Please model this.
Amino acid sequence: MSNMYYTKEHEWVKIDGNIATVGISDYAAHQLGDITFVELPKPGKAVKQFEVLCAIESVKAASDIYAPVSGTVLSVNETLNTRPEIVNESPEESAWMATMKMTDPSEVAKLMNREQYDEYRKGL
Amino acid sequence: MELIYEISVNGRRGVRLPASDVPAATPLPGEFLRAEPAGLPELSELDVVRHFTQLSRRNIGVDTTFYPLGSCTMKYNPKAMEEGARLFLPFHPMIALLPGGEALAQGTLAILHHMEEALEEITGMDAVTCQPLAGAHGEMTGIMLIAAYHKAKGNRKKYVIVPDSSHGTNPASAAMAGYQVVTIPTAPYGDMDLEAFKAALNGEVAAVMMTCPNTLGLFNPHIKEICDMAHGVDALVYYDGANLNAILGQLRPGDVGFDVVHVNLHKTFGTPHGSGGPGSGPVGVKKALIPFLPVPRVVRRKDGSFTLAADNPQSIGRMANFFGNFGVIARAYAYTLMLGREGLIEVSELAVLNANYVMSRLKDLYELPFDQTCMHECVFSASRQLQHDIHAIDIAKFLIDKGFHPPTVYFPMIVKEAIMIEPTETESKATLDAFIDAMREAAELAEKDPAALKRAPVTTPISRLDETKAAREQNVCFA
Model:
């Protein structure tokens, strides 16, 4: 059973105990085009599920990234400060954006697994 | 083309002055002198003239090229307005504030006052301030007025409602004024989802910001209903004037129920814009908001003369130095007088006609996500071309080779691969046809020779730019 889940806003979250790792989906990265800047959240930032976590800029647009779960930011992927292009190269692995300490594991029920997400995307 | 520093030749001068035959003035004290020469380019006068003339020939603007940049209303700016504005060049904005200066400033004050009156008439508002320096600044002013209104009434408000098709400045202005933004999705028919709006509307909503027609170029038939519902919970309704060119003289926002309006003089009233301005974003309000307007206000005395009034304890204060971008306001006033009532009505008629003509002649080749009669602009999607890996940006680059400024691409963000075309009223059918032909050629190339589109532009001094690198490595210093 995979521990990756997706939001309707195209973020992914990987759940490991009460630690959640967050990024944007390969679909989102492709839609945004070449990423030019990732505004990472500050460690310690507390955020509720589906509220704005941080922001991302591409050649096309600036977009908000929403927190897939509620919690507090533990660490951020500093590599993205100098190499935002890895969001395009490896959106669902190397380009994780932040880890969060989850406050409510039951929120995962509001997310989609890969199969459901692929189905959701087809409808877009 | 080389930079002016690169064509510099050691020792070359534009002018060589003869040796002075009068005694030198007292030299500057040592601490004010440079340790090293300033490092200016060394050139002859002719070198400089050629350099800047060459540069100007590479410039693209509405004076050289059809410029259908959607949402920007890049209409031609009649040169008569420049003459009008030039009359006021000698006047310093401080004059009106100096003792006895008011008598000398009557002309400038009259223009400000008359422009405010004209905009009141055009928008159906009770009062207008010309202070805001651009559209977004007008929005900011408008939302601050709304906040002041609620504060004075003791209303406890938290939210501002904005449709997802809005310009990004709408949620930004609301957030700057301390409100939380509630975004309403667009329904399949292209307007704000009315049911979602009703669900979001409650007593804590301070304002609803609407662009009408919206950024899809569509007129919302429920606009009056939306205003009425908002008023039902004492929320004020803001009219973003970005698309006023579509309804000029046809519909007055104030008559529909809007409480605050901003107008982009640099769009609708044909003053120059692009590359950062200067713009001008006057704001109109209904009676209930007049006490909060920025000061100083231009008022007419009983004897017909004009003066400045700043004794307004509830005012949100100054929004700009002096009286806003006066040069732009003077041009817009000249434009308003030049066109007159009938002319302004014709502006919107022709703007809408031109957009619908372009739309109807391209919709067989380009996807039209919201297929209905449009207002002053139409929004296509390059989704069909995407099957050949051709994106909106490739089509835009190709249009440069064809001698056109590209339309807006990738906005509004709710349309995938958006191509937003706003022809404006000032273009002839021949120009529109030439543009349509180029768009049709691009669609044909997307199928038959997509590589050709990927190479474009090939006629410009610099071909396809690496836009990603430009955005990632923002080093613009000459080293």
Summary: Chain B has a mean pLDDT of 94. The domain at 79-338 of chain B is CATH 3.40.640.10 (Aspartate Aminotransferase; domain 2). DSSP finds 15 helices and twelve strands in chain B.
